[in-house]
Prior knowledge:
The complex is a heterodimer.
Chain A: H1 3-26, H2 30-55, H3 58-85, H4 98-122, H5 131-147, H6 151-173, H7 178-206
Helix pairs in contact in A: 1-2, 1-5, 1-6, 2-3, 2-6, 3-7, 4-5, 5-6, 6-7
Chain B: H1 2-19, H2 24-51, E1 54-56, E2 61-63, H3 65-82, H4 85-95, H5 100-122, H6 126-144, H7 150-182, H8 196-202, H9 208-226, H10 233-241, H11 244-273, H12 276-298, H13 303-324, H14 327-358, H15 369-372, H16 374-387, H17 394-408, H18 412-437, H19 451-469, H20 475-485
Antiparallel strand pairs in B: 1-2
Amino acid sequence: MSASFYVGALELTTGAVLVCAVMTLWRRQVRTIVTMLRLQGVSLALVAGVLAWHEHDLGLAITAALVLGVKGALVPWLLRRVIRLDPRSRETAPLINVPASLVSAAFLIVVSYVVCSKLTALAPSAASRLVPIGVATVLVGYFMLVTRRRSVSQIVGLLLVDNGIALVTFLLTAGVPLIVELGSTLDVLLVVVVLQVLVVNAGARHGSFDLDEMRELHD
Amino acid sequence: MLSLFALVIPLVMGVIALVVPWRRWIGWGSAVSSAGVLGVGIALCVTTSSHGPVSSLHGALRADALSSFMVVVIGTVALLATLQTPRVMTQELEEGTTTRRHAGNYVVLMQAFITCMLTAVLAANLGVLWVAVEATTIATTFLVSHYRTKKAVEASWKYVILCSVGIALAFFGTVLVYYAALHSGVGKIGAASLNWTSLMAIAPHLNHGVMRLAVTLLVLGYGTKVGLAPTHSWLADAHSQAPAPVSALMSGVLLTVAFYALLRFKAIADAALGPAYPRALFIIVGLLSLLVAAVLLIAQRDYKRMLAYSSVEHMGLLALGAAAGSSLAIAAVLLHMLGHGLTKSTLFISSGEIAHAEGTTEIAKVKALLARRPVLGGIFGCALLALLGLPPFSLFISEFTMARAEVNVGLWWVVAISLVCLSVIFVSMTNHARHLLLGAGSAPAVSLRARSVAVPLVSALVASAFIGVSAWPLLSLLQAAAHVVAP
């Protein structure tokens, strides 16, 4: 693989991760948001794949396949099940309207470039220059978590945070040791399973799963 | 081999409970498994103190004095909590609040929870430590929502979301430490660079800018799981809704296992950055936690939530002790972990009994427990005195030693502020306790029939008092464990 092709492919796939994150803020249909999340999972796997090819790293290639399977297929499938069983979650209910959300996302991207200057200075390379994009994805995820009040939106926010961090690990350190990668991917999958079961069981028992009604516990 | 044993025991018990449908002996089996873990923990302490750190599973597991001490703490509190399983589950089955399938699942999840905590403290790799801490969240979710009420589901939803998001920050921090290690300029260590021993060896060469960001993320991330302010809000919800033995285990050891992770990373950060920056971070979250606990305890109306906020307070005290960072301070922090585990689990288990007998967890609706239920009220009262830091119980000596260590390194102003918060907490908690315990009972006294409640809880209190009075046999153990993370 030629150097310019490598850099181009890396920039394209990394950029796609952030574009998908911003799209989840833009679209109102939760089904579309889940599709965006699936695309993001695929892009993330491609980032790992490109890096694995460039560095001839078998561990990272396994990671790429794992990410593709879990974040590109399994997790979106689980989320679709939640949407089917929790009809109220089909439309997002943003506390902040969409244009304002997009402006905030732009602001968060600028912030992440400022924050990351120290990180990239330690070992500048084609990959580590792109780290701010991963951090921006994490911040967009947090933004979604605090401004959206539907079960699926919150899970999506959590997954955006997770994908952003995964992207940073690929770009900064070409992934973490394989055992840690396996463990953390399994953890993410199980968290989504657990949340899905909570929504489904609560729906079956109490009629609905409504985060707006979750105000009984407070001080 | 020993450290592998510690993991295998609860794992085997969990598999048995998964395969065999609920019987009363399965409940007793889980208690035996916890006793086994405690035994292995003591054996590990003896081995590490005479032979130094031991590894097994090709170096994936590593037990030094600190890990061994944590295994003992986990084993002790797990024993207290699982001894309740047979009685609580039989009672719930009789009352129809649970099914045999759910009772079986309860045992499986408890064992999975204990295995995850043991993995966390025995892992050689700090990335695996993260995976194990995150896995505890997954194992405990359905334990928190065991009663499947609306409130319980709300509590477990908030718990999973907040803890997963928080712990994601800790993963970010761990990755940054790994990044700094890969570019430390000291040889090629590759995949082993997240191992505790290799990180400590190269710590002085880690990049400052990256480590500053890393340690901040780690304190915020693991701090969520520890229950430190500003991300403590899941704690009161989860602890008040979970079954009492689960709350005992979560408050008694899960929080301290997460704190153990912070102690390890703080040692690395101290070596890389010097003590000033990590100390400032720990002081901020510690004082903030004490402040939050003091404010929320004043007008607290629910006694289980009162106990939960007291955990926020004690975790804040641990953070301040760790901020001081001397080996005296860390030894006191570790003693405090054990003392807090013993007393807080006693309080949660007895409060579960009170809630079951009285049918409410509101402070205003429960009165004159000492007159009406002398044994239960007596245990609750004594444990509360221990929790408030009165002698002869061990929390008195550990709080006193932490304060002394803080003054020794010039943090007298921190001690002054924390004393103000502690006095507020003392007054408001004794006030709540006075309402719960004192007064004249209208009905004749009811004696507590379940020996399986009284015997372990009284033993825990006696143990706590014994540790508080005599340094034996813990002193050398605590010193050895403290030396692992303190100069």
